[in-house]
Fold this sequence. Notes:
The structure is a homodimer. Chain A is an alpha+beta fold.
Amino acid sequence: MGFEDQLTAIVGAAHVDVADAIRDDDTHDEALDGHPVRPRAVVRPGSTDEVAAIVRAAGVEGVPLTPRGSGTGLSGACTPVAGGVVVSFERMNRILEIDTANHVAVVEPGLTLAELDAALAPHHLIYPVFPGEQSASLGGNVATNAGGMRAVKYGVTRHHVLGIEAVLGTGEVISAGGKFVKSTSGYDLTQMVIGSEGTLALVTRATLRLHPRPEFHTTLLAPFPTIGAIASSVPPIVASGIGPVMVEYIDLVSMAGITANAGIDLGIPDDIKDVALAYLVIVLESHDATRLEEDAEALAEQIAGLGALDVYVLPDQAGAQLISARERAFWASKANGADDIVDVVVPRASIPAFLDAVSERAAATSSLVIGCGHAGDGNVHLSVWQPDADVRHTLLHDLMTSGLALGGAISGEHGIGTQKAGFLVELEDPVKLDLMRRIKAAFDPYGILNPGTIFDPAGSAGTAGSVGDPVTTAAHR
Amino acid sequence: MGFEDQLTAIVGAAHVDVADAIRDDDTHDEALDGHPVRPRAVVRPGSTDEVAAIVRAAGVEGVPLTPRGSGTGLSGACTPVAGGVVVSFERMNRILEIDTANHVAVVEPGLTLAELDAALAPHHLIYPVFPGEQSASLGGNVATNAGGMRAVKYGVTRHHVLGIEAVLGTGEVISAGGKFVKSTSGYDLTQMVIGSEGTLALVTRATLRLHPRPEFHTTLLAPFPTIGAIASSVPPIVASGIGPVMVEYIDLVSMAGITANAGIDLGIPDDIKDVALAYLVIVLESHDATRLEEDAEALAEQIAGLGALDVYVLPDQAGAQLISARERAFWASKANGADDIVDVVVPRASIPAFLDAVSERAAATSSLVIGCGHAGDGNVHLSVWQPDADVRHTLLHDLMTSGLALGGAISGEHGIGTQKAGFLVELEDPVKLDLMRRIKAAFDPYGILNPGTIFDPAGSAGTAGSVGDPVTTAAHR
């Protein structure tokens, strides 16, 4: 029986697409510099058992599997492999449980953040990871360890996924973690799978930690003369204990683009605009409106003393508009023809040094590189306009190298995917890469789970991730 | 050259103990039912390079290595292996950096929590993981993913270790993570090593996330008629958004023991004492004394409405005394002849069901089982009095099985160590155990790092963890 027939036997003909029936959407994600690949088939399992059966069959045949949630990724991690099969989780999108006594939700991977949030709001609970794209799936969030603007208060996906059910590359199903924060009972397989971009296991269920949903929010906007001054203001703001939920910076050009794209006017006087090179945006939240107002006033005073040109407490609607526009910064860049994006993370105090290096490399290569980022946690989002692919490659390489030299990492939240796999292999310690390949082999001995993503870019040969070769991990010394 | 001579060549004769020079302290940790083992040698490296040289030499000779911090563990994870060598980190105890701009500290593994806290206080910063034993080392905390009473607000060690330097079982040194919270740049090796109890790598450096140090604390004590009523009160307390830093319960007998042992009188009237079967202890903290007082009042009112027999806001000193006494509950049990301890974690709402099972098994085996625990996060600490080793083994087995049946895990924070390795192997999914052994082999192909801990108890044969056998991870199907 051919592999497509095996898939049909597992999930039913209605849930297998081949040839022309394969939708264009399933051939790529949202990575700017991505190259769509038509897979051999797209299969839409409806249960964990079906996922396990697909993986077992693929293991026997040596067929690469590319897991796919909503396809909103920005690094090409769900780009299919030629001759491979896309495993789409769109049918596995149920909320299995909202447990208000333990403050957890149990969900399937195809569920979107928007759907989850709508279901939690009536319980006055929130899943606080907002990576900026509410149509993203929870499975995709787990795969990339999604972050977003609220990470400065709440941390990232890794801090909120308490347990998973997942299918290993062997087709075996494991259940790890549970409705608890604390456990030291063998290796934490949940944490190992989070952020592994579909290369270690296919997640079929996740147990998520929920938080009380704050009722009140307020947004402060402060133009600054330099990004360095913004970076210097962050430690005292965090040290104040006010605990902001967002601490963002937006550079001059990005602010213009973001507000123009969203059609909002923040009413900043021209004389301030003329000298502001960057903007600090802070959001506070609280369960108590009076305290929130007090905190906003105290913070505004503090920021004024930290070098801000002015400080505005935005009216509710303007604040929400600005945050929403900031979340759509990627789309604004895309609409304006950006060629690629970078989301290097550095220690937050090193943001100015990193941006100095960025400016220098941008000027040297006649590229436009602008952005905004998470000032509270050092995650810098840059949009790059440089049409020449080779020049762009060198530029991205240099930006990543600069970030690494400052003690940072290549990607803060978008992931390595297929787009940056070449950079990781080039820039990462070979000892760690070898270890990661041995770990990959421990979870996925046949190398069928999302090959080409993270550290084995298309075209590389002889790695533990090659498809179809059972591998060993005897160490080299 | 003999192995002891190789060790001497690496670290110098002053830092290698053999034969009678080996201190009794180095033969065991604080596990109640532990059995001291005299190692072949104790070596005290002074640098990462020395640790790496020791591991390389041990790999060649097939000598098991047992890492040791302060020896305050409660599960026997640093019990030496006969014929093996203890690697003591007592000389590697420096604070390498307190970075106030990024709010991180970089430390060596032998540093104690008390030493770190004393150094951070002048900076108004705190490393918020307080497992209850301030002489514990940071390396030990990383190895066990230490938790403690503040986990309900701050999470556990896993949430605060941003990066590590570590020596793999191959003797290779890796550096993972850094001074940032967000990263998706290959597998998170930091998270993999945390909680692995010294079986995957020897941690030689850790980058720790710090928080602003709250100035004000207040303690609420509420006697309740049942533990069930306490458990039911937790979700509304957490949902209130007040964000307590501790939410503990203490059972009747433990409260008597804890207070008697510490010589404190909380002044609870006899008529309340007569009907209180358990006590809820909540600690709030804030940077603002007025708000703290308001919160304490609001919370006291809320707790009174949730079934408490009474609510006391303790004077500062009494509150600190009670918390300190609670932290020493283990020592109170030990002083009173407890035979063993258990720290099962269950979903917090399942604490009453778990304790019902505990009572039933205790009665059926004529054992005394009492305790206290982290009501906010489901981590139950039980002291067990049952002198017969076989009966005790069956009792512990049944308690763990009950916890697992409720969706919990064997250990919330003490770890599996050598003491509970037999239980893990018996009770855990064999598919996960096989996966963990393959992961172990990826980090430690010669099986020299802390063998016997976690999943390969002494006496088990033919596992990937056996000492001296290079292993493969070809999957079984």
